[in-house]
Inverse folding.
């Protein structure tokens, strides 16, 4: 399958939320969002059991149909299971309390995408010490407070994001309560992309919301 260049998939990165997508299905929202310009999809559902999450990931991958990379949050086992079922899934995004990134890379192999959350100078330093190629990009935030991830670190703000991104050796995608108004300032602050949840999943028209976000990013 090959490992894509982060610059191609980070600009508008959708993280799914099953409850916010309702009453629409997650694959339905994802397909619409991609038609509006989303460049990457991370399937995240903290409430789903393993079997349910595999089914969801496979369904999302089918809806995406190879147009953009599809990742899964946290669950290396779910990534492997979906691949075993023939789904076009590209990698895993892990947090600081999940399986260590170096071990994730060993498990998923050299062709898979591995993303890692980081929010402090100490976490950036640890990541910088990893062998080259272990991690493809950093998810940095929360930029703003957000209800979609109640356990997020203290909000960085755009200035805080800029300070961290300036020290990074990897491309950084900003996440946490991001709206269209944040897109251009975050790009100027050094972001390689913006990751959104509510701004698309809760939007009446996910395609239109994605289009507006991408326009703001490109402005």
């Amino acid at each position: 399958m090959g490992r894509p260049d982060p610059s191609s998939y980070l600009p508008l990165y959708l993280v799914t939320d099953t409850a916010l997508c309702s009453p629409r299905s997650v694959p339905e929202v994802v397909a619409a969002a991609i038609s509006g310009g989303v460049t990457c999809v991370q399937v995240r559902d903290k409430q789903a059991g393993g079997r349910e999450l595999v089914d969801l990931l496979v369904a999302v991958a089918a809806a995406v149909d190879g147009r953009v990379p599809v990742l899964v949050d946290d669950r290396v086992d779910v990534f492997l299971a979906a691949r075993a079922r023939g789904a076009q899934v590209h990698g895993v995004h892990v947090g600081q309390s999940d399986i260590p990134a170096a071990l994730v890379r060993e498990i998923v192999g050299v062709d898979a995408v591995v993303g890692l959350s980081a929010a402090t100078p100490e976490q950036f330093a640890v990541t910088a010490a990893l062998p080259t190629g272990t991690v493809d990009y950093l998810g940095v935030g929360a930029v703003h407070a957000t209800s979609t991830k109640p356990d997020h670190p203290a909000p960085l703000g755009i200035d805080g994001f800029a300070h961290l991104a300036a020290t990074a050796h990897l491309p950084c995608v900003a996440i946490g309560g991001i709206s269209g108004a944040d897109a251009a300032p975050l790009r100027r602050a050094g972001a390689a992309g913006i990751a959104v949840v509510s701004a698309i999943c809760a939007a009446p028209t996910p395609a239109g919301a994605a289009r507006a976000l991408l326009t703001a990013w490109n402005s």
Q: What stands out?
A: DSSP finds eleven helices and eight strands in the chain.
